[in-house]
């Protein structure tokens, strides 16, 4: 379980990648990852390509991020979800609030 | 006289004998009389030369004849020099020395030529072997005709160009266009480890920046200092909607529409692979949205640097014009226009170009899974100390995943166990109130309180029972906590605005059934393995 973040070359996209499980153990580091979003960042991608597991605490963390960032970014995309995780997001109606790719 | 000067001398009385002696002994210089019985000098000389082959064997005619015609005849039949009878000792000695020197040079040259031939043949053979290995290593890849059209001239491989593509388990389409510095075998060797790493990492669904990082490290370690690999590594998401690319040292990539109009130019961001140390490496990628009308063009410098007979370069502007010269242009069209420009009909050596169509690439998964026929169960009881120091869910999921077929469901099983266990711990054992999460920054506060409460915890127990029932193809979980039970009214709340209760909603969607006991300190979940875990 770990979290890494990287900015795109033009500085407009922040990618947060989560490895292993996405649950409350990441509460602090996840909050920190988006706390530094500045005016230049236009888009946030939560890359779940290496995320095997998530639970409702992860959903809570995602919603908190959405609330915090508000209108300061134009989109938040949750990308590269495995099918079971995508289903969890759909059941929770996250497709209405996030761009799920 | 010659023996006095330490020459070894073999005598022959006629031409026939001379030829025999030549094949028996290693003769360095022939002194040949014109007048001889059986076979005279004029007749013998050409045969001696023929026998000597490629190495220079000097023939010095000894003659009493004085006329020019005879001299000419001597040279004509292969004589290298002549000396008159009676001859001068010093002149003969000088001539022999001069011709011996020439013969030594000729022998040396011949030896070198043979050596060169040997090495040439060996190199040829090695090239053949390597070419075979390369074509096996690089061409066994899957092709994606709808997604990607590429041209890599056969000679390109030995010029260090490579194009790799693969699909990840998540459906993303990855490709890599690389151009190693230099030419020939040396430039091509890096392609083998690079392709291995690429395929292995795509198979794990890693991000392009991770792939670039690994390739850079491997190549930096492997290649000599002056060698590196300019590359573009790209991932198109399964939905065909977004592209991530790491660009290091290749010419600009173009995003064009179906008509070939330029939409966007992507410039190289980084140094080529294999130069920087791991800690200096830059992972930054470019990320952009695409749609099914867009195409991405990537090429090595071979195309723009192609020269015409007038020594002008094909250039980027001409490439853009060619791209717009017809709708949905293919790589073969482009290559033939490059050939037309260069005026060469034959294949130029390193023309590599790929066009990627930004379309969805749905993953086809075979849901056929077989399940173990043996029952399996476990019972785990955690005390307060164990709750403090462990996050047991993943371990339990891994345990269950060893049952044949269950592994495919591990994300769902994790979710069920995680929700049930955390409910039992947070509310049952620790007695925390979910309402906290609704306050300003409550979510974070909640987990701080949880941690504080956990350190204080004494005398508590959570029991987890799992029971795999092969006949019903389901797993029954029972989670019991030592708490006083939590309120059942929270069940089923899935409102997005509320900060809690979401977990319970999820539980009831993912599980086949969820039931609580009277007090609410025991929950039974049944998870059906008949649901295809891959269909979302």
Automatic annotation (TrEMBL), chain A:
According to the lineage, what is the superkingdom?
Answer: Bacteria
Q: What is this protein called?
A: Anti-sigma factor antagonist
CDD domains assigned: STAS_anti-anti-sigma_factors (cd07043)
Q: Which InterPro entries match?
A: STAS_dom (IPR002645), STAS_dom_sf (IPR036513)
Q: Which PROSITE patterns match?
A: STAS
In this chain the STAS domain maps to 3-101
Cite a single GO MF annotation.
anti-sigma factor antagonist activity
């Amino acid at each position: 379980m770990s979290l890494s973040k990287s900015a795109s070359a033009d500085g407009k996209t922040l990618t947060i990648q989560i490895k292993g499980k996405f649950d409350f153990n990441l509460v602090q580091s996840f909050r920190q990852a988006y706390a530094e979003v500045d005016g230049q960042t236009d888009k946030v991608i939560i890359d779940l390509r290496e995320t095997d597991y998530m639970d409702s605490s992860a959903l809570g963390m995602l919603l908190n991020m959405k609330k915090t960032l508000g209108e300061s970014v134009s989109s938040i995309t949750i990308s590269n979800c495995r099918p079971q995780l995508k289903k969890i997001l759909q059941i929770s109606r996250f497709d209405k609030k996030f761009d799920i790719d | 006289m010659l023996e006095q000067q330490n020459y070894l001398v073999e005598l022959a009385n006629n031409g026939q004998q001379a030829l025999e002696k030549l094949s028996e002994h290693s003769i360095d210089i022939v002194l040949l009389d014109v007048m001889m019985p059986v076979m005279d000098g004029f007749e013998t000389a050409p045969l001696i030369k023929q026998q000597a082959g490629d190495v220079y064997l000097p023939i010095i005619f000894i003659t009493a004849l004085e006329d020019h015609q005879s001299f000419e005849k001597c040279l004509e039949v292969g004589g290298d020099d002549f000396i008159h009878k009676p001859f001068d000792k010093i002149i003969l000695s000088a001539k022999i020395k001069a011709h011996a020197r020439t013969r030594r040079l000729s022998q040396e040259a011949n030896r070198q030529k043979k050596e060169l031939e040997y090495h040439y043949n060996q190199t040829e053979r090695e090239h053949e072997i390597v070419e075979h290995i390369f074509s096996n290593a690089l061409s066994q890849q899957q092709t994606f005709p709808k997604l990607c059209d590429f041209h890599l001239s056969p000679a390109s491989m030995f010029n260090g160009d490579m194009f790799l593509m693969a699909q990840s388990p998540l459906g993303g389409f990855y490709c890599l266009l690389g151009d190693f510095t230099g030419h020939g075998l040396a430039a091509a060797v890096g392609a083998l480890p690079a392709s291995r790493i690429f395929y292995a990492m795509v198979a794990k669904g890693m991000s392009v920046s991770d792939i670039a990082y690994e390739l850079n490290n491997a190549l930096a370690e492997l290649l000599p200092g002056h060698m590196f690999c300019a590359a573009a590594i790209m991932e198109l998401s399964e939905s065909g909607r977004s592209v991530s690319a790491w660009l290091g040292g290749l010419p600009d990539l173009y995003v064009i529409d179906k008509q070939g109009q330029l939409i966007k130019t992507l410039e190289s961001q980084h140094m080529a692979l294999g130069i920087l140390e791991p800690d200096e490496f830059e992972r930054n990628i470019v990320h952009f949205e695409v749609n099914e009308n867009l195409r991405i063009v990537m090429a090595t410098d071979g195309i723009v640097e192609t020269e015409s007979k007038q020594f002008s370069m094909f250039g980027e502007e001409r490439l853009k014009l060619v791209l717009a010269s017809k709708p949905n242009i293919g790589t073969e069209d482009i290559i033939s226009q490059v050939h037309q420009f260069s005026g060469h009909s034959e294949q130029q050596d390193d023309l590599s170009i790929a066009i990627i169509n930004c379309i969805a690439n749905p993953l086809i998964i075979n849901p056929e899974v077989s399940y173990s026929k043996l029952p399996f169960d476990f019972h785990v009881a955690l005390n307060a100390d164990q709750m403090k120091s462990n996050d047991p869910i993943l371990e339990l999921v891994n345990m269950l995943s060893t049952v044949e077929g269950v592994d495919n469901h591990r994300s769902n099983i994790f979710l069920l166990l995680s929700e049930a266990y955390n409910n039992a711990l947070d509310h049952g054992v620790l007695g925390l109130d979910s309402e906290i999460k609704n306050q300003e920054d409550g979510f974070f506060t909640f987990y701080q309180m949880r941690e504080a409460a956990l350190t204080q915890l004494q005398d508590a127990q959570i029991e987890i029972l799992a029971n795999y029932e092969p006949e019903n193809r389901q797993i029954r979980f029972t989670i019991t906590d030592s708490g006083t039970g939590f309120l059942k009214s929270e069940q089923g709340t899935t409102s997005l605005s509320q900060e809690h209760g979401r977990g319970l909603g999820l539980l009831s969607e993912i599980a086949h059934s969820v039931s609580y006991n009277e007090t609410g300190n025991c929950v039974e979940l049944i998870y059906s393995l008949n649901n295809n875990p891959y269909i979302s």
